[in-house]
Fold:
Amino acid sequence: MYNANMDVKNYYIEFCNNVRAEKARKGLTRQQLAEKAGISIDTMGQIERGEGNPQFNTIVSIALALDVDLNTLLPLKK
Structure:
């Protein structure tokens, strides 16, 4: 959820939480989501744990693989 007082790290944590939640809603495993998104399972694991700093194209690939709008994953809407 959008919060004007959140810092970048908190936005990333929210993004990671949203990815995990959507993955669970879709009934996907980490491996399945990684394959659908075209990224490594290690990268997917880092994202789910809130580690690393994924590139924008990786974020978009995950949204496409989950068949959700970026606004579903990124807590930037007001």
